[in-house]
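One record is set out below.
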Amino acid sequence: MGVPNAALNLDDTDQRMLEALARNARISLKELAEAAGLSSPSAAERLRRLEERGIISAFTVDIAPEAIGYPLQAIVRIRPLPGQLHVVERIIQETPEFIECDKVTGDDCFIGRLVVRSMGELDGILDKITERAETNTSMIKATPVKRRLPPLSH
């Protein structure tokens, strides 16, 4: 994680670079420089500094789960039974169908996102967890807001 005040030092050029990278992490350095109004060497240096400051932590790809055989997605709220927190966390980490999971405050300890091929597959995954936790599952119908950058301006 970066320094909490690192975002306070983002200027308009940094913001343009981050927005261009959020649209396409595979953008060429030349195109990134053009988007930011910089030369390629200047853009490369800024990119390096954004990484060093922890503002950029990875360059990634966005894969459509349904295109690779996972037509169903679910959000699962998980409340481990007493003494089972670490075991449940390990089960979640070792289950590749959990594509995302947050440890949260409140009644539930974890909120996870699963991709599955069928309802039967979902039941099988949940069966491993429900021996050690209470779960509440909601099937995802649509994602009106995909993961995106937070507001970059001050």
Observations:
- The mean pLDDT is 92.
- Residues 21 and 27 are 7 Å apart (CA to CA).
